[in-house]
Amino acid sequence: MSKTLTTMSLILTLALTAPVAALADAEADAKQGKSEKTEKTGKELFESAEGGSCSTCHHTTNMLKVGPGLLDVSKRHTDEWLTMWLKDPQGTWRSEHPETLELRERTRKLRSRATSCVKKPMDDETRQKIVDYMGTLLSTPAAEPTK
Ligand code: HEC
Q: Of the residues 30, 74, 80, 86, which has the maximum number of CB atoms within 10 A of its CB?
């Protein structure tokens, strides 16, 4: 009888501590920027350290902050370019990609040599959410899909 009790309390302890341990792990991962799954939306990521603190340097209007305002950024850039930029802003800055040339020309007065846009290591899902979020920053909102 007492053996059964011991076993039961052991199971109970494991069942209770496992989720807590998993949560602590996830938090540690998030701090190191290697969290695989995030519940945050693109907007939340854009505004949080986990996503790279984009909002520290970018307004979502067309006002300049440290970097350009990102209103209508998806009209200036393809998703491919945005993804490439987020993976490696410095490398993209040095490339002769037409969208980079346009950006360099547009920001010439700000700085001349390298970009100061952050390179934040992030998983594909996080990056995609941020790219998708940038696609919603439109001066003329996309028409509501008809049901
Ligand atoms: C430390 C400031 C800083 C942070 C943080 C930052 N950026 Fe930037 N970003 C810049 C600057 C400055 C530029 C313009 C290029 C240049 O002149 O260096 C830029 C350029 C860009 C561009 C091109 C804009 C255009 O008009 O073509 C995009 C897109 C962009 N950043 C997205 C992001 C995203 C998304 C994040 C968060 C993951 C982020 N940035 C974080 C400073 C920053």
A: 86
